[in-house]
Design a protein that fits this description.
- By secondary structure, this protein is of the alpha+beta class.
- It has 3 domains: 4-84, Winged helix-like DNA-binding domain superfamily/Winged helix DNA-binding domain (Arc Repressor Mutant, subunit A, Orthogonal Bundle), CATH 1.10.10; 110-159 and 288-313, 3-Layer(aba) Sandwich (D-Maltodextrin-Binding Protein, domain 2), CATH 3.40.190.10; 180-280, 3-Layer(aba) Sandwich (D-Maltodextrin-Binding Protein, domain 2), CATH 3.40.190.290.
- Helix content is 42%, strand content 24%.
- It has 10 helices and 14 strands.
- The strands form 4 sheets. Strands 3, 4, 5, 6, 11, 12 and 14 form a 7-stranded mixed beta sheet that branches.
- The longest helix is centred in the first third of the chain and has 29 residues, at 4-32.
- Mean pLDDT is 86; it is low at 1-12.
């Protein structure tokens, strides 16, 4: 049974946390806006007030969250960790408020999205400005990174993932929104010298631009579902599709690229599709989101918008 002193202690800690919540919010805004001055303009709050509140928060926590000089603003390593949890807390608070208010008429508020750099460049860059224009009260925030992101712990509303194999069961809501074929391509000059192939097995005599030295090439599939192995000789290796495209444009050999990444080059004639009756698999686009975030009108509108524009390609 809890003692009276224990209850009083917990009550004091709770009161202290409530007193700090506004400072948590201010700190998150300062980090999001990358400085006190831009945050002051965005929130219409004096810069001195923001600086004082963050300083009080640092004093309460006993740690330095931001290193600030007259010329430089930098979040400390501890500050980065604190920011992720504080941002996630604010997202959950916003979700609680939205559930109570039932703001279903017009999506509004911040939507935090994470994606790999290639996915951000190829898929989201053309779409997110359209999303922001379609929903003026929405604040779109994209974090593009190739590191592993825990979207729950780091306070993201959704993640957009391009993947070759099925995603593991992570306890997150998964919505498959698109799929595109991977094509075999090469430069016209290379094919003029080495010859065009009629069957995947013919690639054994060609130079391959592969994703790793341990790669044995590709499993090709035709429209009927028949499969055949394509095993070129490794001429160039890179685990990034843009680099492989540049190597193909330079005439180094044959590679396999998502068609979205080489459609323009094929239309220009700088790349040619090899084995046009065959593909080297497919890239699937999936949106991941925590269960509770998916209930927010802003998140639902964002997911529906992305899904409608990507679609099955």
């Amino acid at each position: 049974m809890a003692t009276h002193g224990h209850i009083v202690h917990k009550h004091r800690r709770w009161n202290g946390l409530l007193a700090n919540l506004n400072d948590f919010m201010i700190f998150v805004h300062v980090v999001d806006h990358e400085g006190f001055a831009p945050t002051a303009r965005a929130l219409n709050v004096p810069k001195s007030t923001l600086s004082k509140r963050v300083a009080e928060l640092e004093k309460d926590l006993g740690v330095r969250l931001i290193n600030r000089t007259s010329r430089r603003f930098a979040v400390t390593e501890t500050g980065e960790d604190f920011y992720r949890h504080a941002a996630a807390m604010l997202v959950e608070a916003e979700a609680a408020e939205n559930v109570v208010k039932g703001r279903l008429a017009e999506p509004s508020g911040a939507v935090r999205i994470t994606a790999s750099v290639p996915t951000a460049q190829l898929s989201l860059a053309p779409l997110l400005p359209e999303l922001a224009l379609a929903y003026p009260k929405l604040r779109v925030m994209l974090h593009a990174t190739d590191r592993f992101v825990d979207i729950v712990q780091e306070g993201f509303d959704l993640a957009v993932r391009d993947h070759f194999a099925p995603l593991p069961d992570s306890g997150l809501v998964q919505r498959r929104v698109g799929s595109e074929a991977i094509w075999f391509v090469a430069a016209p000059a290379y094919l003029a010298e080495r010859g065009m192939s009629a069957h995947p097995g013919d690639l054994d005599n060609h130079d391959g631009l592969l994703t790793s030295l341990t790669s044995e090439g590709w499993t090709a599939t035709d429209a009927s579902g028949a499969q055949a192995l394509a095993r070129p000789q490794a001429r160039f290796v890179a685990d990034e599709s843009h680099v492989l495209r540049e190597a193909a444009l330079a005439g180094l050999g044959i590679t396999a690229l998502p068609h979205k990444l080489c459609t323009v080059e094929i239309a220009r004639g700088s790349l040619v599709r090899v084995l046009p009756e065959w593909t080297a698999g497919r890239v699937t686009t999936t949106i991941l989101m925590p269960h509770r975030r998916g209930q927010l009108p802003s998140v639902r509108a964002t997911v529906d918008f992305i899904a409608a524009r990507l679609g099955d390609q």
